[in-house]
Design a protein that fits this description.
By secondary structure, the protein is mostly helical. The chain folds into 2 domains: 66 residues; 52 residues. The chain is built from 6 helices and no strands. Helix 1 packs antiparallel against helix 2 and helix 2 crosses helix 4. The protein is globular and about 45 Å long.
């Protein structure tokens, strides 16, 4: 049993155990998969880009410092990763694209998917996601200028 830290001291978190080689390969595979999906999402209107790039950065941080460095310094991906890390920022343009893609998807689901309750369940998830997304800040608190989008 550990004793509590002395008064006035800063509690420290124990260091995370290093990942096994297998887990590093798993995270690297996930990072590359998410990056690929993000790149496809840049070309296909109904597939989002930002969430996949953020997931790629998360997995790369656990597996490949080189890939993480490339993502963070990329002209298109770097700002969205930095903004998310420093305040959960999602630009207005990204919000509109996501909302548009979800609207198109919802329309298709309501038309094509049966039983109807499945389409309505998916629609409810999209509405919840949209509400969450539009509550995210559009710029960093210290930004005085317009959003980067």
């Amino acid at each position: 049993m550990q004793s509590p830290p002395p008064p006035g001291s800063t509690p420290t978190r124990p260091l995370a155990a290093p990942l096994s080689q297998l887990m590093r390969w798993v995270y690297l595979g996930l990072a590359l998969l998410f990056l690929l999906l993000g790149l496809i999402g840049a070309l296909v209107p109904v597939l989002p880009t930002t969430p996949f790039i953020l997931l790629a950065a998360w997995a790369a941080a656990r597996s490949s410092p080189r890939l993480l460095d490339w993502l963070e310094n990329h002209t298109a991906f770097g700002p969205m990763i930095s903004d998310w890390r420093h305040g959960g920022v999602v630009g207005r343009r990204a919000k509109w694209w996501a909302t548009g893609a979800m609207s198109v998807s919802a329309t298709y689901l309501l038309y094509a998917v049966r039983p109807l309750w499945i389409a309505l369940l998916a629609l409810a998830c999209m509405v919840a996601t949209s509400l969450w997304l539009w509550r995210r800040p559009e710029r960093l608190p210290s930004d005085a200028g317009p959003p980067r989008d």
